[in-house]
Amino acid sequence: MNKSLISEPYSLKNKSVTFKNRIVKSAMSEGMASEKYLPTNNLVRLYQAWAEGGAGLIISGNVMVDTKALGEPRNVVLENDDHIDLFKQWAEAGIKNNTHFWMQINHPGKQVLKGVVDEAVAPSAIPFEPDLQRFFPKCRALSPEEIEEIIQRFANTAKLAKTAGFTGVQIHAAHGYLISQFLSPRHNQREDKWGGPIENRFRFLSEIYHAIRARVGDDFPIGVKINSSDFMKAGFSEDDSHFVISELERLGIDLIEISGGTYEKAALFGKNAKPSTVKREAYFLDYAEKLKEKTGVPLVLTGGFRTPTAMNEALKTGATDFIGIARPMALYPDYPNQLLKEKVDDLSVKPIKTGLSFIDNKGLMEITWYSQQLERIGRGKSTKPSFSPLLSLIITLFKNGKEVFQKRRV
Prior knowledge:
globular, TIM Barrel, alpha/beta
């Protein structure tokens, strides 16, 4: 079939930025930083493999804006220029092969696991549900002064990313991290200018965007990853999401990546997807179609795509402008090249199952198994798509003990 839509270039409006094709390597948490939260040789090697793999845009995993606010062990942190040369090496690897490389910048808020940081902060001192809260320390509400400081931290990290040679940044406002917490009426119950109606809950993200734009200039691309919905009662809704994206478009955002859910409700993994959704492959395609009726902002749709047919159909209908791919590229870093050369028709990824229901029902092996594949690429080795999840579990427990499952996320 004609795969020209996937291979077509795309230029951002009002920017001298052109992507060579419509394939985006979406962010995955690598967990490959040094003990000082810096890029390692293995991380550089991983991103060079992805750059050479043919995607038009690759987006890094979480880069945190504060060493005191880590989502998990071995996050990369960029808060000063003390080791900027290491970030320059990382950026240089990621832009090979005429590839754009954007840094995803983030603050976890209260979504920080026990033992990783000293304390958890949030818009409001509201715990997670008991089954989830046991993995997290008790959180406290941020003061207005701390909120302003975090806004400037985002701007500082974005400016440093530009200095290092990254070709853009993506603000992570999805998946239950701090910005997502501010957007959610479930987690943000403040009574000041940062809480209440969606106009106030959006203020934190809006101010972060303004602060970044002031530091990086008008020509540097800024994207946002945002939920279509939290899929939770009293959470961030589709109506809220439409409002936020419309406002971001008005402010001048360059690219929106659509995702959904949080770690309380993991729609981002396609769990409990409707049969119609599974057939069309993309988890959030219905939402994107409705959104495109209201906005002209360029969209990346990530989650579920496995065949060129579904990718091209989504592009053809105008529901999205880019196809985001994550887990398949943890197995096949050159998948975009194969796709563009019409050498692959389907890349269905089998669920990672050990046969142990108490492990499999919670999806504990998904992230660990894929992380092991990323580590292999980083060491210059081939991935093992057929690697036994049960053997992966045994190796993981032998090396790290059962607490490893409390310390890894995407």
